[in-house]
Amino acid sequence: QIFNQHNAEAPNLEQAFHRMAQMEPNLDHDVSWFLLPSYWAKMVVALVSFLCFANSYDGDFVFDDSEAIINNKDLRAETPLGDLWYHDFWGSKLSSNTSHKSYRPLTVLTFRINYLCAGGFYPVGFHVINIILHCTISVLMVDVFSILLGGLQFSNKGRRLNLAPKSSLLAALLFAVHPVHTECVAGIVGRADLLCALFFLLSFLGYCKAFRENKEGYTFSVFWVLVSVILGAIAMLCKEQGITILGLNAVFDALVINKINFLELLRKLLYKDKSLENAGLLRKGLLFRITLLMCGGASILYMRWRIMGTGPPAFTEVDNPASFADSLFVRAINYNYYYSLNAWLLLCPWWLCFDWSMGCIPLIKSVSDWRIIALAALWFCLIGLICQALCSEDSHKRRILTLGLGFLIIPFLPASNLFFRVGFVIAERVIYLPSIGYCILFTYGFSLLSKQAKKKKILAVAVLGILLINVMRCALRSSQWRSEEQLFRSALSVCPLNAKVHYNVGKNLADKGNQSAAIKYYREAVRLNPKYVHAMNNLGNILKERNELHEAEELLSLAVQIQPDFAAAWMNLGIVQNSLRRFEEAEQSYWTAIKHRKKYPDCYYNLGRLYADLNRHIDALNAWRNATVLKPEHSLAWNNMIILLDNTGNLAQAEAVGREALELIPNDHSLMFSLANVLGKSQKYKESEALFLKAIKANPNAASYHGNLAVLYHRWGNLDLAKKHYEVSLKLDPMAPGTKENYNLLRRKLEQLQKKGG
Q1: CB neighbours of 463 closer than 8 A, spacing ≥ 6?
Q2: Most exposed residue of 137, 384, 535, 661, measured as fewest CB within 10 angstroms of its CB?
Q3: Which residue spans traverse the membrane (predicted)?
Q4: pLDDT of residue 751
Q5: Is residue 84 one of the residues assigned to a domain?
């Protein structure tokens, strides 16, 4: 009977827990929004977040994807897995002074898995993983917001109660459809932020799992606290912001678990109030847990510092101009202006840009600048929220506002320039985590408006309208991230003063062969930033190809004057000087390029061409050999060596070099052609014929291949085959040098043979 009575009363106890939980102030009482079961709420959030970014699944590799993925050797199977732990995000050694110091080995590991599973650089798989990650994070946000907005309370069976189902759904939807997240989802390198956010949230949920509620308060599990620290470390190995979750866990512990009133605590500390002894901090284990979090965080940061090897990365003034300002006042004003712009992107994410550097946001240098108003507005709002978070008598309000501000500000601190200089002015990707705080504050504001509004349905429709507008904005922005052309052109209206935007549009046009249009954008980039050496270099290259050598030389000379260690500009200057027949100056430019970049195969190749023009054959061969040592697949250098040795009568050496080259690059038809010529001259007709035919199979429309094979047959005495390939060669190129004369000689010989036969 006792057993049966216990079972009969269990449901009543469950209901009692629910009633006790609902006695506390609850956002959902005032929020006019949809109430869905937890499972359906998560399904809706997943579906909506998928719809926002689904059209980015078949986009190209764009912008930073080239350096972080396509040109990153750490993704390839031949690179040892262990190297990932000593290289930065871009594949450079962390110990190098030129390293970016972005240490994200776990993100690079996922790129590597993508690459290996797809069997190459196919962007679809990379994009699909990003979309799945954002959907997963958005679903997790339902649970996270239910804790942040409704508190951490449990039923008598230990099941966590969701006391704010409507509010948590609204906040999760706001997060899922925020357009500022497009860069993280549609840009493949944004995976660093997505993975960081995933483990960031898991760390928070793991910390919450450490607690169990009883009559005396909360008990906690050291195991789950340590799991939370480990997940925070994993988040940091995906992106540096991840470490901030340990601080947020501490804030959550103090506010939600220990229900500390920070203002009251500060007052007691200042006045040495004896009631502090009865505060219960030690009894509840807060200091012990914070000690664990601090020790874990310190250990993680120490290991990160040891691996990094050297000091912070060296950024340039164009990356972050405010950080290079001489005046502390100018730096402080501009940093705060950047904060206000980040806040505006959260509030009104309409003007989005892939890059905000290089003059996009001119420096504020005087208090008379009207943009000071933005700073005043930001701090007016922040101070108002902070005062309410600290001074309100409503503990529920204090908790939500403090958590909202904490999640807004703390994850943003690594990007704030307060602790170290960062390499950007504004980066939409770094707002991914702080947007959690924005969603909390927005939802709380909506609940306050709902409480005051007489027509709550109109307010709900307005919020639904905001969500729909954001979904459409996400879809539009995702489509712009599908290709570099759309992405770069979309930035022209947002940041017309950004030299990098014009540079990237120009580069994209140049890659497509539209040199005239590219010149226009390169010139504008140089006009906006007269020290933009990369724009000068690319513009000089195009002018060189158009034979406008004198202007090209002026631009390249200016580029190396501004940046004396710019190896590529030195090499291009050498090419121009070589074309102008100023050989000594060209040689000096090439050697200066090699001085600044020791492993520069293309420069050795061009140096070899210079020496060949000067008939310095030994020097030319040495230069080309250096190029092939540094880059074994350098086909042009191999070809030039074979041709030079052939032309100078060193057939045996030419043959040896040709065979060596084909072993390294077995499918290069130009090498087959060059070696076939050498073998033909050495009267190795059968082998020469085989190589010619293989080269023709690989490139059937090369007139010279057919013409030289015809010459081989002509020498060999296979006149009918010679006639056939002469005719194919002349059909492909009627003006092919020497072919017509050889063909006429063959025809006369065939006519003579016919007469003799007649």
Answers
A1: 33, 170, 446
A2: 384
A3: 33-54, 131-151, 186-205, 217-237, 243-266, 286-305, 372-391, 403-424, 430-449, 458-476
A4: 79
A5: no
